[in-house]
Specification:
Elements: H1 10-41, E1 48-51, E2 57-62, E3 70-75, E4 78-84, E5 91-94, H2 95-101, E6 108-113, E7 116-130, E8 133-143, E9 150-153, H3 155-158, E10 162-166, E11 169-174
Length: about 180
Amino acid sequence: MNTPPEDNNPRKMGITMFIMAWAVLFIMGIVFFDDLLTEQRNPNQNPASRTTAEGAKEVTLQSNRQHHYIANGLINGHKTVFLLDTGATDVVIPQSLAREIGLKANGQQQAYTANGRVTVYNTQLSSLQLGDIELRDINASINPAMDKEVVLLGMSALKQIEFTQRGDTLILRQYDD
């Protein structure tokens, strides 16, 4: 009896192709759901901007599933992710991100956070951008206790713009002086 060599066995090749097809589908599912989860966590990856009839720059943000406003933006030209926090006095940057951006510490102070008292380091941001809104010379703090790559967009920046919340939408407006 003449049997085909094991490498050319059609049944074995069929099983291999079946496993490879499922592996490809699995990988595609991971990519799809990872993108979906990222979109749910940060629905403002490209914040919508426009200029109003009055000449104000306006950025519209959608809240995420946890009702937080998270958006991509720039600090001194470096990409970052902001979490808008009206309870934060300053823009607060994790130390690891501050190092990446090249921010310099200009003294220290004590800050009271949800996790207790922490020493933070003062710094100055040349520019902060969210959509078409760009702010200059912003006071900020570098927080060594923050382990995430999310920047708290606090009142040192937010006080320079007008913001209005309606439902799950936050509208930020910057008027020309």
